[in-house]
Design a protein that fits this description.
- This protein has about 725 residues and is of the alpha+beta class.
- The chain folds into 6 domains: about 1-205, Hypothetical protein af1432 (Orthogonal Bundle); about 210-350, Beta Polymerase, domain 2; about 395-485, Beta-grasp domain (Ubiquitin-like (UB roll), Roll); about 490-565, no CATH class; about 580-655, no CATH class; about 655-730, ACT domain (Alpha-Beta Plaits).
- Helix 7 (about 100-110) runs antiparallel to helix 8, helix 7 (about 100-110) packs across helix 9 and helix 12 crosses helix 14.
Length: about 725
């Protein structure tokens, strides 16, 4: 009874707030939605034990707080009814009409994952793909979804620890960046802060303690600074508004734990915001601030003349006062402030009249760019990597020689810049100038620089495969891969077919033609390839690793085998003896007994696709198929007859092989100990360790270990990537 009472009180508060901005007929629709949701969810409970209806009412309250329209609030109340109850879309359409049904349908689809997708990262990729599609159709869907995630993370302490961490990580990597791109600052900061509190509670508490221990002095300092600024600025701008705030916990966390800064080294813990009526007054205030305080060089950013992609505009400067305490000053107009606080939601909250205008469309252009990049991606998981890499808050703004502004993520190179202008310019690029000077191809651009791309007019000029390891943006990587796919499509298709057939034979899996055709069709759909040729081409190029396909193929093999009726085993005698040479756990086809050795140039191990080379007087040398010393097309080799098929023999799991990995690390006193701990936990023997210094204080650790297959090596690499301070890991060849 108490639960019902509290729910009704919650809804009455919601309705009272809504009555200030909704018409009477809209309020009646809101009542109808609440009654329906309350009825459908009446038997359901949340993990906390509370009635489930508390969740949709809370989500509706968040959506209303951000000033969204009545349809959005109604959709928030009903967002789980179709997915979690017996209510159908048809019934919903009859009661509320097309608009509400469209929004609820979009939200329902976001929660559904295809049953045949079991990989967590692939599930996440599918969800992100659907979110982008939903955003492109109606931006209100994602705003309600963000509100849904915000309330869920507010109550995340009631779920199991592992699920709690998974949800928090997903929030930090996916939802918070999307909120950032939509310009919804308050939501972004709360999502980040709450996610960090679950992912690193010790670090979070450390920052909270630092802030609370100096809470009083913080407030006193801000009040003093605000009064000083107001007294001076009011002489020029009488109606000025001055606000003060302390940086979010996540903002401090990023700088302390990801940039290795001490708490007292963070210059923008304090922030003062000056809000005026027009742009001219913004620059007038900037002059006054720089006259009152000492500006810190390199800390001024003009986002008014160069807005962020989410249309955020403001002047930012960091200064030091007489107390020797640095603080940030943000200067903006009221219109800029509305956009900064509510982002895309300001369109509804303040009736900005942006719908259908170029400005509103510009705010959503990044969604279309991501969708276009996703269409060309080889891997469904690339879309998640794009979100994680391209939607980060840190951005640089670079100019073309004509003065056009190109925004890129921090760490982007001149190659990323070239592809951001046009894929054709990127493909023909041979070099670049920054501020008139020639720079290396891996040069990372900085805000304010003028970049000129040097291109070649030579026919057939294209990108280098090495660029894939240099570029920062997913868009550039996708365009580079796309170029190679188009240029060598036929070769890739043939190679893809061959690779798949070889791997199936190597794993001793047997399918009929019909079974194989069905499996390829399903794999093609799972990898989002339009045709079989696209699928095989992606394998041949390397866009779809064979290792990703094998688990499904094995699963299908065992499923089909269990369905077949047992038949008498037929022993078929070979009419001709098959010539085979064995050694080092390798079988070489077509050769009698001879010496077999593993090549040192690529150091193959079980699980690698291999090929043999008949040497003169030294037996057969075994190479990885992708070894630089192995021709891509054997038929075009000078002596193709010396290359022979080879495969790993049964029982290699009992043998041990050496493999070398290169671990790129941030400077850290504990990195070697952490790496050694992982190796010790996995009981992996270390044969050799070497180090090499890199640019920027980074270092590379070369570790030679003893493993039994690529599977065990991949597990090791995966574990090491989770070590704090590890940037990247690659398998090394001699």
């Amino acid at each position: 009874m108490e639960d019902n009472t509290s729910v009704k009180i919650m809804y009455e508060d919601l309705r009272e707030q809504a009555s200030a901005q909704f018409k009477e007929d809209e309020l009646l629709m809101l009542d109808k939605a609440f009654e329906l949701a309350n009825e459908k969810h009446k038997e359901q409970k949340r993990s906390s034990g509370e009635p489930y209806i508390i969740h949709p009412v809370s989500v509706a309250k968040i959506v209303l707080d951000y000033g969204m329209d009545c349809a959005s609030v109604v959709a928030a109340l009903l967002h789980d009814t179709v997915e979690d109850t017996d209510l159908t879309l048809e019934e919903l359409d009859e009661i509320f009409g097309e608009e509400i049904t469209h929004l609820v349908d979009g939200l329902t689809k976001l929660g559904k994952v295809p049953l045949d997708i079991k990989d967590k990262e692939e599930q996440q990729a599918e969800n992100v793909r659907k979110m982008l599609l939903a955003m492109s159709q109606d931006i209100r869907i994602i705003i309600v979804k963000l509100a849904d995630r915000l309330h869920n993370i507010r109550t995340l302490n009631f779920v199991a620890p592992q699920k709690r961490r998974d949800k928090a990580l997903e929030t930090l990597e996916i939802y918070a960046p999307i909120a950032h791109r939509l310009g919804i600052r308050a939501m972004k900061e709360e999502l980040e802060d709450r996610a960090i509190s679950y992912l690193d509670p010790i670090g979070y508490k450390e920052i909270e303690d630092n802030l609370s221990s100096q809470g009083r002095s913080y407030k006193e300092f801000l009040e003093t600074i605000k009064k000083q600024i107001h007294d001076r600025v009011a002489e020029v701008v009488p109606d000025v508004t001055i606000e003060g705030r302390i940086k979010s916990v996540h903002g401090i966390y990023r700088k302390m734990y990801m940039q290795n800064k001490e708490f007292n080294e963070i210059y923008d813990v304090y922030a003062v915001r000056i809000i005026v009526d027009n742009t001219i007054q913004c620059y007038d205030c900037l002059g006054i601030i720089h006259d009152m305080f000492t500006p810190i060089p390199g800390r001024f950013k003009d986002y008014i003349s160069t807005p962020k992609p989410n249309m955020y505009q403001s002047l930012h400067t960091t200064v030091i006062g007489r107390a020797a305490i640095p603080f940030e000053v943000q200067i903006r107009t009221w219109d800029m402030h509305k956009t900064a606080e509510f982002g895309i939601a300001a369109h509804w909250k303040y009736k900005l009249g942006l719908n259908g205008t170029a400005k509103f469309e510009e705010r959503l252009a990044w969604i279309r760019q991501l969708l276009d990049a996703q269409k060309e991606a080889d891997d469904v998981k690339d879309i998640v990597r794009t979100i994680k890499s391209d939607l980060v808050p840190e951005e640089v703004f670079v100019f073309t020689p004509k003065g056009d502004v190109i925004n890129l993520p921090m760490g982007a190179t001149v190659i990323d810049f070239a592809y951001a202008i046009h894929s054709a310019i990127g493909a023909k690029m041979v070099g670049a100038k920054v501020n008139g000077k020639i720079v290396p191809i891996d040069y990372q651009v900085k805000t304010g620089e003028i970049v000129e791309v040097l291109t070649s007019s030579q026919p057939g000029k294209g990108p280098s495969r090495d660029w894939l390891s240099i570029v920062k943006t997913s868009g550039a990587k996708t365009k580079i891969r796309s170029w190679f796919k188009k240029e060598r499509r036929e070769e890739n298709i043939a190679e893809g077919r061959l690779q798949l057939e070889r791997e199936i034979r190597r794993n001793k899996l047997h399918f009929t033609d019909e079974e194989m055709a069905t499996i390829i069709t399903k794999l093609k759909e799972r990898q989002h390839c339009n045709t079989e040729e696209d699928f095989f081409a992606a394998i041949g190029y390397g866009g779809i690793p064979i290792s990703r396909l094998l688990p499904y193929i094995r699963e299908e093999y065992h499923r089909l085998a269990s369905q077949k009726q047992p038949e008498p085993i037929k022993v078929v005698e070979e009419t001709k003896p098959v010539k085979r040479a064995k050694g080092e756990g390798v079988i070489v086809e077509g050769i009698d007994n001879c010496l077999i050795k593993l090549s040192r140039c690529c150091a193959p191990i079980p699980g690698d696709e291999i090929i043999g080379f008949i040497t003169r007087g030294h037996g057969v040398s075994i190479h990885k198929r992708d070894c630089p010393n192995v021709p891509q097309v054997i038929e075009n080799a000078p002596e193709p007859y010396r290359w022979v098929d080879a495969s790993w023999s049964a029982g290699t799991e009992t043998k041990e092989f050496n493999a070398t990995i290169a671990v790129l690390c941030e400077p850290s006193a504990f990195i070697m100990a952490d790496i050694a701990n992982v190796l010790a936990e996995m009981r992996i023997m270390i044969n050799a360790v070497n180090t090499r210094g890199e640019k920027g204080g980074r270092g590379t650790v070369f570790i030679t270990v003893t493993v039994r297959s690529t599977d065990s090596l991949n597990v090791l690499i995966s574990r090491l990537k989770n070590v704090q301070g590890v940037i990247d890991i690659t398998r090394r060849t001699n």
